[in-house]
Write a structure and sequence with these properties.
This protein is α/β, with parallel strands linked by helices and about 270 residues long. The chain contains 10 helices and 10 strands. The protein is about 45% helix and about 15% strand. It is globular, with a radius of gyration of 18 Å. Bound molecules: zinc ion.
Length: about 270
């Protein structure tokens, strides 16, 4: 049996469970790392959540997510800055050391324009992140989301931005679902590692045919992503953090979540070592 000491789960993966249930169930199965999606924090007392996390000996890997810096209207971009500052503040209160950035894109403007706005947005929020000791991780998204979710679609683009901005508080989240197809992936992972910028590692699988561009991800081993290979590259590049299971799946959300959690553990043990 492969051990679970580096296994982390995103709360969105078991979306039908509220935060307390997720924390309790993960802990019962011997999983002690969690990434919290911000919708699970709405109208909640963060101190109480922090206490529950402590009581269950849970470690928060990151808060998901900030970003969405892009918009043709300045007021909307300002609103995004405010929201990102709130995310950093929430992370600091929860003692989460990383906020994941889904950077944004807007179909009414060019990708280059969106990329400029992303860079500006990150530069605006970095001082607060440094002040609160919270790191920011750019997550490059698969190009199928380039219209409206992210104009950062390759690890190279993310590496380039990190190199331009150059802050030890800015790094990258490598998600196999978004990056597995890229012929430059191995080289860019090495480059990312050399800059000490691999902040997090997300796993799931790509099912064929995919029936929903957002909510039809598979369990590890169900699809065509060479997860083991990518994990090896990431670890050879110096990453020693957790392996975060992030599966959006209408199919699995409709099933018994206890059984789903057992399947996650089994697929992790069978396909990630
Ligand atoms: Zn991800």
């Amino acid at each position: 049996m492969n051990d679970l000491s580096k296994l982390a789960i995103h709360t969105i993966t078991t979306k039908p469970w509220n935060l307390e249930t997720a924390i309790k169930k993960y802990a019962e199965m011997g999983i002690h790392h969690i990434t919290i999606w911000r919708q699970f924090l709405e109208n909640r007392d963060l101190k109480k959540i922090r206490k529950t996390i402590n009581d269950k000996d849970m470690h928060i890997v990151s808060l998901c997510r900030g970003g969405f810096f892009t918009h043709p209207q300045r007021e909307k971009r300002e609103a995004a800055i405010n929201d990102n500052e709130r995310a950093i503040d929430q992370a600091a209160q929860l003692k989460a050391q990383l906020v994941v950035l889904v950077c944004g894109s807007h179909p009414d403007q060019s990708l280059n324009k969106s990329r400029e706005q992303i860079k500006e947005g990150i530069e605006r929020i970095l001082p607060l992140a440094e002040d609160k000791n919270v790191r920011l991780g750019i997550e490059p998204l698969h190009p199928m989301y380039a219209d409206s979710r992210s104009a950062i679609n390759t690890l190279k683009q993310a590496n380039d931005i990190c190199q331009e901005i150059e802050s030890k508080y800015l790094g990258i989240v490598i998600d196999v679902y978004h990056l597995w197809w890229d012929t430059q992936l191995e080289d860019e992972i090495r480059r990312c590692g050399a800059m000490e910028n691999i902040f997090a590692f997300h796993i799931s699988d790509w099912i064929t045919p995919t029936t929903d561009l957002l909510n039809d991800r598979g369990l590890m081993g169900e699809g065509c992503i060479p997860i083991r290979q990518i994990k090896t590259w990431v670890e050879e590049a110096g990453f020693s953090g957790t392996h975060e299971v992030e599966i959006f799946s209408n199919r699995y959300w409709q099933t018994d979540q206890d059984k789903f959690l057992e399947l996650i553990i089994k697929s992790y043990q069978d396909h990630c070592f």
